[in-house]
Amino acid sequence: MTTVIPRPLDEQSTGPLPVTDDQGSPPDEVAVPPRGRLVRFVRGKDSDPVWVRPTLLSLLALTAVLYLWDVGDSGWANSFYSAAVQAGTKSWKAMFFGSSDSSNFITVDKPPASLWVMEISARIFGVNSWSLLVPQALEGVATVGLVYLTVRRWFTAPAALLAGAVLALTPVAAMMFRYNNPDALLALLLMGAIYATVRGLEAAQTKWLVLAGTLIGFGFITKMMQAVLIVPAMAIVYLLAAPTGWWRRVWQVAVMGGAMLVAAGWWVAIVALTPAADRPYIGGSQNNSILNLIFGYNGFGRLDGSESGSVGGHAAAGSTSMWGPTGLTRLFNPEFGNMMSWLLPGALVMGALLLVITIKAKRTDSERAALLLFGGALVGTGLTISLAQGIIHPYYTVALAAPLAGLVGIGTMALWQRRSTWVGRASLAAALAATTAWGFILLNRTPDWFGFLRFAVLVAGILGVAGILALPWLRGTPKLAIALVASLGFGAALAAPLFSTVATAAVPHSGAIPSVTPTPAGGVGGPGGFGGGGHGGFGGGFAGRAPGGGGARPGGAGFTPPAGFTPPTGGTAGGGFGRGTGGRGGGGGFLSSSSSGPALTKLLQSDASHYTWVAATVNSNSAAGYQLASDDPVMAIGGFNGTDPAPSLAQFEKYVADGRIHYFISGGGGGGFGRGSTADVSSQITTWVEAHFTAKTVDGSTLYNLTTPKASTTASTSTTSST
Q: What SS3 class is residue 597?
């Protein structure tokens, strides 16, 4: 019996080809005479043209250069996570739970898998900018490689190479794979799950479904519920297209779900079963519960805006909140548009038209399955980000970059192979027209940023569309004419993302909400960076020296605060490549890290071994700067945004009475800014400290020595005790 499995598409094939060898293996995997390992590595498979493997290696090498070049200039990048990495290198307990400090007071508001990768690197190479950020860049290179491998399983080498190049040249990918947020590892794991699903679809092998579920599970302990957004697409495509019986498909999808639960649940179970006294407080939760964090702050609360402790408001569809307008057009608005939407309209057009073209294909058709898998992951995640009314940051769109790249590679080359038909030409021309028009609109939002580029894109796009439609009349002409049409099309589609990606990689980033270059006015931050002056919105507050990070943190990748919120003072963004240097601020405000001067750092380090925490301050971002500078644990009151009810005033008073905290540093912000029911705990603690201890200013920061209360307070306490 002849087995049918997916095969790479070529000029004559639009679907899977029959396997003819008696082992049930694809022809391109038939045994070949042994060769030297280096030769095989460079040459690749015998079935590939000679240029394919060198081109792939060049793509990966260039991606590595793009993501690694001067990556250390970002200093601590997001110091919130850098401080947690530092803590994890000093305490295995802090590493396992994801604590913000090595004394294990509170965790970060995400699970710790992404921290584990950086902590392993930092334990080997020391805690510095490069040991934190190089693993992120390598995760990016690996993701590009996985996109290539996934597309290449069923499609031509040009389709796979185009998909890899599109991912590498997506601006938000260039930013987040040079950053220390969890999103880099999440993107890699999700792409790995898509690859495993494709392998499972080839011969209905359960082991690949187990791997797919396992990778999603580890994605869950990287960024919780965001990881499961692609699961519906994976399950539906497998149930539809796997080459086996219906009940076996159902059973295999159930096995995938079980693997996902095990891979995610082991860590959750340990945390949930560990007594609260034996672990840090679960940051981001309102009741010290990992389940509250999963289903509340990092779960359904992100969808409806009801997360306790949130700093955003309910954003009805089409309205504007702190996190921007919601609705179907969210990915195209000024906050999100430049992140990854450059090729999105064209990709959606190609995907939709190809689904129509393949609608009558057999159930197991590989081309349609690939379109549904990549397109389903893209649309499912994109709709969630678009409609969610809770905390959603524009950089979350990095999760869309790999599915978008796969869809672009598959769609472009599949339609190019059908260029001899009117439907193929018209579809490809429509996709290029949509891409060109949207690229012009995006570039027109920042007309001073390489002003010629939008007109170059428009002209190339118009000529490319005309050339595609005129292909029948170009038959018999030199191949150079066909190559010119293809070059115009690729140039119109990829020129703007290329410029934006290089510009984004050329700018160091810091703070909680980085943004790409250019950023339109009204978006997150301001236009700046490669070739343009800039302003940073809230970004100036991020400026200042990054302790141990090597370089100034920029002000050009910031955050525009809500009306009425006054950011902390800081520097201003610069022009040129968007590098800005700010003044040395004191306590970090919400979303910005603190900056510790030399005198303050020395003070924190004095007698540090006598205290559990050398200092306490409100919110984790404020604590992070002091902790990274002093290399000693700092208590982050209220967690990430200062709204977690930890510690209570009574607990804090006991810590002080027991001599476990040396200093309190004010100016952290947070507290009442949030919407949590106990958001005033941090302000209660601040008020109590101000009433009982004397303030002094060191390096622009106001601090209180918690070991020496005011004389009047001491006397009052003594009198009360004697009575």
A: coil
According to DSSP H, which parts of 537-641 are helical? 598-605, 620-630
* Of the candidate ranges 27-41, 164-178, 256-270, 515-529, the one whose mean pLDDT is the lowest: 27-41
Pairing mode, strands 613-618 and 661-665? parallel
Environment class of 61 (CB within 10 Å of its CB; exposed 0-12, middle 13-18, buried 19+):
exposed
Identify the helix (H) or strand (E) that includes residue 696.
strand 693-698
CB 686, CB 671: distance < 8 Å: yes
Query: Burial level of 361, CB count in 10 A (0-12/13-18/19+)?
Result: middle
- Which residue, chain included where needed, has tokens 């692609």? 230
| Closest to 603 (Cα-Cα) out of 667, 689, 548, 665 | 665
For the segment 506-530, the average pLDDT, to the nearest whole number, is 73
User: Rounded to whole angstroms, what are the CA distances from 335 to 396, 408, 516?
Assistant: 12, 23, 10
The residue-averaged pLDDT of 225-239 equals 97
Residue 256 C-beta-side C-alpha neighbours within 13 Å:
30
Q: Tokens in use for 647?
A: 């510690």
The model carries a pTM of 0.85
Alpha helices in 358-478 (DSSP H): 366-387, 398-417, 422-444, 451-469
The token pair at 631 is 């290399």
- 421-446: pLDDT as tens digits: 999 999 999 999 999 999 999 999 99
Phi, psi (deg, nearest 5) at residue 17: -105, 150
What sections of 299-365 are H helices per DSSP? Answer: 301-304, 337-340, 344-357
pLDDT 10s digits, 455-505:
999 999 999 999 999 988 877 666 788 889 999 999 999 999 999 999 999
Q: How confident is the model at residue 533 (pLDDT cuts 50, 70, 90)?
A: very low
CA atoms within 13 A on the CB side of 268: 23
Residue written as tokens 């070529």?
10
Task: Please check whether residue 668 is in contact with residue 622, taking contact to mean a CB–CB distance below 8 angstroms.
Answer: yes
Which helix (H) or strand (E) element contains residue 711? helix 711-722
Looking at residue 146, its pLDDT comes to 98
CA dist., res. 583 & res. 4, Å (int): 66
Q: Where are the beta strands (DSSP E) in 43-201?
A: none
Nearest Cα neighbor of 449 from 539, 521, 522, 530 is 530
**What is 240-289 written as a DSSP string?**
HH-SS-HHHHHHHHHHHHHHHHHHHHHHHHHHHHS-GGGS-B-TT-SSS-
Over residues 70-98, mean pLDDT: 96
SS3 of residue 664 by DSSP: strand
Which residue would you say has higher pLDDT here, 376 or 720? 376
| Phi-psi sector, 684: left (phi>0), alpha (psi -120 to 50), beta | alpha
Helix axes 246-273, 206-223, angle to 10 degrees: 30
Gap between the terminal Cα atoms of the chain: 97
Residue 489: which H helix or E strand, with range? Answer: helix 479-505
Separation of alpha carbons 559 and 182, rounded Å: 19
- CB-based burial of residue 113 (10 Å sphere; 0-12 exposed, 13-18 middle, 19+ buried)? buried
DSSP-assigned letter for residue 609: G
